[in-house]
Fold this protein.
Amino acid sequence: MSLTVYRSSESIPYTGPELRPHFILSRFRIEDSAVVAFRGPCRVETAHLVDWEDRLASDHIAAKEMIHFLGEFFGITLREGVWIQRHLAQEAAARLRAKGLEVSRDGDDLFLGGGKLSVSIVTASPVSVLLHLGINLDAEGAPVKAAGLAGVLGAADIDGFIDDLLRGFEREWVSVKRATVKVKPVI
């Protein structure tokens, strides 16, 4: 299974309904499993939350600006999608640590300086597994104690982080695919 990674220069608000089958196809014309990155504000009301724990608590998600990584994967299970989500979060944390930031990870959540740096969810649709990882740039408006990368990293560092994370994810995807086809079956 192939994968396309794409970074949009367009500012796109994330409100929740973007986490749906074929959004990437309809918005970016990518007919493949894909991860796209874009910047934009985030405001997900309770009715659009996918996480039942958060919905039942009447939570919402908000930030003035985030880096959004939106993925759609065909031919995988929800469990595989969660592993992909955790890997992406771990790789994001490692790349931010390499820039000198004291970022920690708990499951799919990233933290910086005592504040929540990210939001993330994975869900299944009838045709695919969907992923959203949002990393705060400007956490203003967040309903929890949150941290952001703006003011901590320069614009070039943020752009480099986005591109490096996408390229690294693509390399890992290709490597995993190769690992599954190069082995002799055991009977």
Notes: The two ends are 24 Å apart (CA to CA). Helices lie at 23-28, 52-56, 78-98, 155-181. The chain has a mean pLDDT of 96.
